[in-house]
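Now for my pick.
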Amino acid sequence: MTPCDIGEGDCDTGHDCKVGLTCGYNNCVAPEQGRHWFNAGDDCCEPSKAAIVVAAADVLLVMLFFLLLLLLTLSLLLLLLLMALP
């Protein structure tokens, strides 16, 4: 059996889902057109809380990197301005 993606199911455990996903509980919703309908109480794969936390931490690290790069650039500009003063 191929592991399910987000919103797919019916899963029984996280092993039924792709990497980074976990099996939810009674969380299947009416699918997009062209997909089969789920029964009430079916379980579908969803992002694991750990994956969400890791993704948020990655975003924060990237933002911190660019903030530090901006501060370094502004510091260098200020230094150049101070050096240009008589």
